[in-house]
Automatic annotation (TrEMBL):
It is an enzyme of class 1 (oxidoreductase). The active site is at 131. This is N-acetyl-gamma-glutamyl-phosphate reductase. It comes from the Bacteria.
Length: 321
């Protein structure tokens, strides 16, 4: 069994990880570390786990664990690893932004399995992609792979309230979020950096604009993204490119059906739909921001790192009704 630990256990992504790992047939969840909740039953914080686990939050680390997931606030993972040394065999999967951009830090590999599978398999350290970055990258990288991102990209995406984490702010209160809709960080969202870096790795000469408008939706979870750019080929040409790109993907599927979030919420899937309007190709991409956009993808990466089928423990079902 793979002995796993979670650092920072009280947030949304940690809750999803705990749920998945408790049911994972090849994993023993060894500890859930929290500086704010030590000794408190995990099920008191993640209340859907009542009756399913007797685990308590720990104030101690098992530094010999096989894999450790970092579910810390952005900027805290680097500090934590600088202050805490794990064994040479321990694999690290970080869910923050700290190691996503290319650097020498711990030789972190960017964990987007559809385009980095072989590197993930050999990695000791994984930087799990951001939620918007996952949905958008899966929408546009097949074009970059074929050197076809020649025109400006225009992206509009909406995320649920869980994308902001558990900390309360003015825009996460129910009275503000309910029956409301707003954009934020237009053209300067932090995930643009990792999206741009992924594009450049596949299409080094890319120099057109990536224009991104993120939006807050009045629902709990999910991301619905639309991206369009110039494309001189036919719709059938585009479908061939995307189906080839994802022919071996475990969770990413190209469909002709209309898309809506209930198809992917509570799953590790990304669904993509292509449409052609004049000389423009429109790509719609939907994911669950907490699963394919965070914890589900982290477990998918863990499976690859330990030589397991990447679907193991991720047979999650959509909450359709």
């Amino acid at each position: 069994m793979i002995e796993a630990g979670i650092i920072g256990g009280a947030g949304y992504t940690a809750g999803e990880l705990i749920r998945i790992l408790l049911r994972h047939p090849e994993v023993s969840l060894n500890f859930v570390y929290s500086t704010s909740q030590p000794g408190r039953p995990v099920a008191q914080v993640h209340q859907d786990l009542l009756g399913e686990t007797e685990l308590e939050f720990s104030g101690e680390l098992n530094k010999e664990a096989d894999v450790v997931f970092l579910c810390l606030g952005h900027g805290n993972s680097k500090k934590f690893l600088a202050e805490n040394q794990f064994s040479d065999k321990t694999k690290i999967i970080d869910l923050s932004t700290d190691f996503r951009m290319a650097s020498g830090d711990h030789s972190f590999v960017y964990g987007l399995p559809e385009f980095n599978r072989e590197k993930v398999k050999e990695a000791g350290f994984i930087a799990n992609p951001g939620c918007f970055a996952t949905a958008i990258s899966l929408a546009i990288l097949p074009l970059a792979k074929e050197n076809l991102l020649k025109d400006d990209l225009h992206i509009n995406a909406v995320t649920g309230a869980t994308g902001a984490g558990t900390s309360l702010s003015e825009t996460t209160h129910f009275t503000w979020r309910d029956n409301n809709f707003s954009s934020y960080k237009s053209f300067e969202h932090q995930h643009l950096n990792e999206i741009g870096e992924s594009v450049k790795k596949l299409q080094p000469d890319h120099d057109s604009e990536i224009n991104f408008i993120p939006n807050r939706g009045n629902f709990s979870r999910g991301i619905h993204a639309t991206a369009y750019t110039g494309f001189s080929g036919s719709l059938d040409d585009a479908k061939l490119i995307y189906k080839e790109a994802y022919k071996d993907a475990a969770f990413t599927f190209v469909t002709d059906e209309d898309l809506h979030l209930k198809q992917v919420v509570n799953t590790n899937k990304c669904l993509l739909k292509l449409q052609k309007f004049g000389n423009k190709l429109l790509i719609t991409s939907i994911i669950d921001n907490l699963l394919k956009g965070a914890s589900g993808q982290a477990v998918q990466n863990m499976n690859l790192m330990f030589g397991l089928n990447e679907k193991t423990g991720l047979d999650l079902k959509a909450n359709y009704f």
